[in-house]
# Entry
Amino acid sequence: MDRRKFLVLGGTAIASIGGCQFSNPFDQRDRLKIVGLLGAIPSKLINQFESASQFKTEFKAENLPSKIWQELQTYPNSKDKIPNVISIGDGWLDLAIANSLIQPISPNLLEKIPQWQKLSPIWQKSVTRNNQVWGIPYRWGTTAIAYRSDKLKFDITQWSDLWRSELKLKLTLPDDAREVIGLVLKKMGQSYQQENLVEHQDIFATLTRELKSLNSQVLTYTSENYLQSLLADDTLAAVGWTSDMYKAKRQNPDLKVVIPQDGTALWSDIWVMPKGDALTAAAEWMNFCLTPAIAAQITSLTDAVSPSSELEQVPASVKADPIKFFPQEILAKSEVLSPLSSSTLLQYKELWTKMRAGTLS
# Structure
């Protein structure tokens, strides 16, 4: 599923709460209304929260981050009751702020989220703009490489492996400038989100050559159905997101997923509050999702990891998963993508347009 909107160009243990709609609009009792992502929250957590709080909870699940983003944009003109909490991918956060679709979490409400103070600074910074907190991350994953271990005669371990001759026209990349340019920069030993590319002529020249070379490897660019061609033997490797790759890996044990040793991009799903009444229960829900027992369930029963620093209750079998719990030295090289300056975005756009048109020189 498409997780990035920074630059737009062109199992059974997991919850199945989809299809649940909000209740009778004429029922005036206090209710916490949540719109979430299908499979991101184990279904039993809803009952657990209701037992621990004073609020009846209504959870509506959508199957794509893009669908939730579309819904969020309709709320300012909606006659229906706006949900109190909604889940968005981190790539939509700044667009939501810029379009006044969400509200910051006030200091008073933030005090009701004690788990916020325990989050790593990397996650706190990811949702803070101008000293205001705009959301609470509740799970995260990475950009990764999936490949057919039954078809390739070598193990993919780093970004540079995507340039190998065996993958000529056997590679799928995201239809996403930030991700593709980012992985090439990472391969070069640079930041995934290098600013002002043209001011660094040596980096820019190398980047241009590498993008041109990588483009010749690609069969197709897609951020949605990128694993289908891999499972159908049309391609042998694909770059995408771990949340998608878990399901595909369950369908095909020959599919191997790897976090590149060079480091990668980190993504998160975030609870935010649409503009409207800010219920105390919204803060209680956000805090609840980060408590150790619940964080352990999110980590164990879904295809992502809780950002909680207290994951002692996660089973050892889950902690042995090399995709969810990869080495710290790789995590230290990885980055949460943040907004680029408008001038840098234009540089990315120009490079991306030329790459896709095959006109890089």
About this structure: The first strand starts at residue 31 and ends at 37.
